[in-house]
């Protein structure tokens, strides 16, 4: 659509975004962006047809539901709007490469991005200025993130909680007031502390009827006795293992252990240690780590294999939809056997879900034979071969047509 035609009204969509609730307290709150955006459209005679609101989303990546919904609409044919209006270009993106990608993607479909506070023309000079602004927004975003993380690390080192849900066995309490900010700490939660202590005791000593339990046995023990998680759910292997390995329980909560963007582990020098009241004695914790290490599949013969297999990741349980994972075990003769089992069963134990277990060789052969019968059928091979020959001839014809006679 020609937006400059005097007889045609340009259709506009507003995109409103804030990163955090704290940001919403300032002059770029959602209501303020909306008010300014509507006034902008009215002044220029744009018809406002859609508003996309993105509360609490970063602009450093495109993992934003409303943003993606807007892009999908803006690149559809025909697009329901001609212009995307933002308060500033940083509301759209804070990564200059990603911003350029999406600006071009919209432009290919005749949709233009405009800013209320940063007016830009269509000439090359203004386009260059837009890219410079995007670079500055990206730099500013990274600098802000760096300063915020530095402050949060220092906050943790002083023993204050930075937010998020505390580990089971702890609760958040107000510690002191600094100006308008309430500093918070962790204290032992009497409601769930005994659950943590019981997990450690079961792992080292058992319940008195048998010896020490493994992670899976503890999950089964809890689920059989209807000991629910603090959310009222069933226990899984990952939850039990996390409790057994978390240093928080010996008074050392580790903050900033992984990158927020890609979840990669950070160097130990960047980790901040926050002091909290210990729930478990260090001697008990060390004994648990030693036993976990002795049972580590990388040290002792594996019971769970993570190596390449035919069906891992592509074969699923018909009842619960859980992926089938490869496990190994030893028979009475000492021979090792391999089998697929439902990941839900492997994670929660037999009490969590009675999933099926199948010999690996048997299932692999069944699937391979079926694929062979379908894909390697003589008639199918004949069709594929004929198609390949036709394509080769098509490629050869242009080359042959320019050869001298």
From TrEMBL:
Boundaries of every Resolvase/invertase-type recombinase catalytic domain copy: 11-159
Keyword Transmembrane among record annotations: no
GO MF annotations in UniProt: DNA binding; DNA strand exchange activity
Gene Ontology terms: biological process: DNA integration
Catalytic residues of the enzyme: 19
Every Recombinase domain range: 167-298
Keywords: DNA integration, DNA recombination, DNA-binding
One Pfam family hit: Recombinase
Glycoprotein among keywords: no
Protein name: Recombinase family protein
Organism (species): Devosia equisanguinis
